[in-house]
Amino acid sequence: MNSDFAAAHLHLERACHYLRGDDETSCQSRAALDLLIEAIVAAQYKRPAADVVEFPRSARQQ
Q1: The domain containing residue 37 runs over which residues?
Q2: Which of 7, 15, 38, 58 has the most beta carbons within 10 angstroms of its beta carbon?
């Protein structure tokens, strides 16, 4: 089963919206959610490692 990072991102953004108070718990919660959102975005756009094909060098390039 694959994760739906876009949906997770959306729900975390909504949670931040609902925690708009200035109290300490709301501020700490938003900070924690920001860390989660950053991790989700990094995972969402992570690319698999690519295989690099090395071409032979010509005599002029050596």
Answers
A1: 5-44
A2: 15
